[in-house]
Amino acid sequence: MMIRLMLRNKKDGIMCPIPQYPLYSASIALHDGTLVPYYLDESKGWGLEVSELKSRLEAAVADGINVRALVVINPGNPTGQVLSEENQQKIVQFCKDENLVLLADEVYQENVYADNKKFSSFKKIARSMGYTERDFSLVSFHSISKGFYGECGRRGGYMEVTGFDSDVKNQIYKMASVSLCSNLSGQVMMSLVMNPPKDGDESYELYSSERNAILSSLGRRAKMLAEALNKLERVSCNEAEGAMYLFPRIELPEGAMKAAQAAGMVPDTFYCKRLLDATGIVVVPGSGFRQVPGTWHFRITILPPEEKMPTIIAKLTSFHESFMQEFQG
Fold first, then answer.
1. How far is residue 74's CA from residue 54's CA, in Å, rounded to a whole number?
2. Are 39 and 89 in contact, with CB atoms under 8 Å apart?
3. What is the pTM for the complete model shown?
4. Residue 70's closest CA among 86, 51, 40, 92?
5. To the nearest whole number, what is the mean pLDDT of the chain?
6. Dihedral, 327, 276, 229, 17 alpha carbons, nearest 10
7. What residue stretches are annotated with the Aminotransferase class I/classII large domain (predicted)?
8. Phi-psi bin for 46: left (phi > 0), alpha (psi -120 to 50), beta?
9. Do 104 and 139 contact (CB within 8 A), yes or no?
10. Is the pLDDT of residue 181 over 90?
11. Is the dihedral of CA 284, 287, 290, 295 positive or negative?
């Protein structure tokens, strides 16, 4: 809805991170806008550098693109990084200086595993810098489909729109009203997410213990999987600070590159397809999220049950070893 609102024609652009959640590039294309990519720095734990934002913005403007918004995914998908408050302050200031709407995708805010990191909303950061509704445009997104509750079979969420003129907000309500049937079950679940049991409530102890157990298990799974991936030949992987994914980089042998070309596939898709056929393990090729040209990745989730992780890791390791032996020559 917000992307549709932002884009008037092909000359309007929205900045999105690469690698990115494909919904953004697809929605921008659907509404006939222009994707303005900026690259996360894999060598710095998928860091978001403001210098990169400035460089990409300047290049887009030079090409005649009217850049209207910046998308930031925090914690990251598919990369799993969690931004520091200092970094967030620089991003807010960049949007303020360049008159960009900040579209803050914060659906993984509950999922933070790194001991030295914590989630802070962009609204909190903007307010701490003294920016109010009158001088900073921000849209914050949240969902019931992620987090520790992870109700992926249901759909519900919200966006908080701040710093927009009331006439613009009225247009957003009109766009929402085109959908005649309200998503009642999703709305009920979203209200439960936003108003969880509180200390003293009858269900608080059970809720708290279940929540902590799920999040601590996800943290262990993320660490276990990252360690296993980093042991594989020609594979390197940043640890997941948050979200639900790892995004390892794989250097494919020349033989695999030629076999992929002969099969009419992108190299990382070829690897992922072979992995699926051999093990039943589903991963998503990095090319589906875009990546630095000439690099290859895949996204793998940390969602399988913890007790099944050793078996999955053993299957993945065995496949990778045989794949490398097959194409090493």
1. 19
2. no
3. 0.94
4. 92
5. 94
6. 100
7. 5-314
8. left
9. yes
10. no
11. positive
